[in-house]
């Protein structure tokens, strides 16, 4: 028997075994090949040190000496391996660049703590590899001096290799067809923020994956984690391939990037529809689907994202898709592979849209689910036009059980909780057991649909394809209100499972149910009125602490996604351009005081709504600022456009401003104790 790289074992007289312990240094990771709990003496082992950007490797410590990396050695007894790794000590530099050559030179010369300030102009960079990054104490910032004033053009693409603590911010990226725009290999704490990303489409056969987060494909470890893609505008993807992919390494033991965040972006017009491989966001892939990624996709606006049946495709474990808004997107959020994920507090608006693919009419859907132990709750579904694969809640059959070692099949939905959701006027609300022309022969198992409100006037609320599949789903404490030609869709249910009653919802754009509110949501949604039978009526083992808007329960939790609580602030809601994309505030809060007849928006930071705006907008003030406020507007070149002094004696929470100037505007507001600047876009 041969063990490791070099030892032949006599089973009747095996050699002694030893333990290798690792002391991991700050700023680097030690890995061993092969990775084993114990090693027979005589085994050849390779120690590899991966150093984060901003740190330097000085020498091995413990049982190894010198600076050879990787270091190959033979096991002869117990060992401890460490490394002396220190932060690079250099002075921070700010580089202002105005030409392509200067930009490339600055990227090559970066050190921890540096800033590269890129002036307005076009920069055809070509393929750029960035392997110099920052550190936690000295991050690097690469920024367009004026939002979208620096335009990256031509056949430009970035490979970010083993770097950390680096931000690329504010560029207008409008490039020729490339396989990727940002390829991140073994990166951590890298942020791609406030960029406007576009790619030309020149052929029908081109394909691209705009941002990939993972590691070198064949690596034995994945050093990617805690990266962030935020406040960007992705517009117009007309070729195949996904916009954003969370991947990993695919060596002997595959590993996936962890704890990445995709937030506050606008994804607009991913079209036309293709059969596969055109997701807007994909988290994982088949050989990584059993691994925990902990990816969070939140506060994004998806519009016209039709390219793939799966708008957000989850192929890993313990991911979260929450607080996003989907408008006119033909497809679903699909928990395709993996277990223990959450879909919470999202808004799905079909707005009557359908499209045609392969001679079939397809519509806008909600959530489709496979695998184990997912929770889908506090979501709002309205006007969705999809069915079969694209119902608001799609629980199909599977073709393998969850104990299967297959990674590419469709695992049966098992232990799924679909609860506290509100579904209004959808073509198909709940579909159970579709078998894909007998290709999926295994029924769902032990799933729960509870505490939901569903209103439908045309079609059956539940579409069941077989009694066996229906038996794998238990109903509890739902309120269904079929009117017109609609029906519940199944028989032999009890009042404790499904109560057929008018939930008495009202359509409102107020953050709380209050017709006098000053701040309105981008879209009207149906919420509970004071007479609703859903109030204080929730039951069951799973009861979320807050509702779709972040309101806490006033007494017993209400049925559906909305909590009727007129004494609580609102912290979440539907997403518009005021809340996501390059010009949205960094820390926008939806908080609304509902303790008075005329609630006002309260923000934790100064903010502007709407933004972008035409001729006038409203500056929202934080926390009842009183006294004199100086308001000055400057254009992108620093020229003063207007100035006014406001005496806010009444401590109003907003100031209205007007401007005929077009383009980027900086609004500077000064009080006795503070100075604040907001970026505005005047259209």
Structural notes for this entry:
With 683 residues, the protein is mainly β. The chain has three domains: 2-87, no CATH class; 146-496, 3 Solenoid (Pectate Lyase C-like), CATH 2.160.20.10; 613-682, Immunoglobulin-like (Sandwich). Helices cover 2% and strands 41% of the residues. It contains two helices and 63 strands. The strands form twelve sheets. A 14-stranded parallel beta sheet has the order 11-12-15-18-21-24-29-32-35-38-43-46-49-52, with helices on one face. It has a 14-stranded parallel beta sheet with strand order 13-16-19-22-25-30-33-36-39-44-47-50-53-54, with no helix packed on it. A hairpin with a 4-residue loop joins strand 59 and strand 60. It is globular and about 80 Å long. Residues 1-5 and 592-604 have low confidence and may be disordered.
Compact description:
The chain has 683 residues and is an all-beta fold. It has a 14-stranded parallel β-sheet, with helices on one face.
Features:
single chain; mainly beta; Pectate Lyase C-like; Immunoglobulin-like; 3 domains; 14-stranded parallel sheet
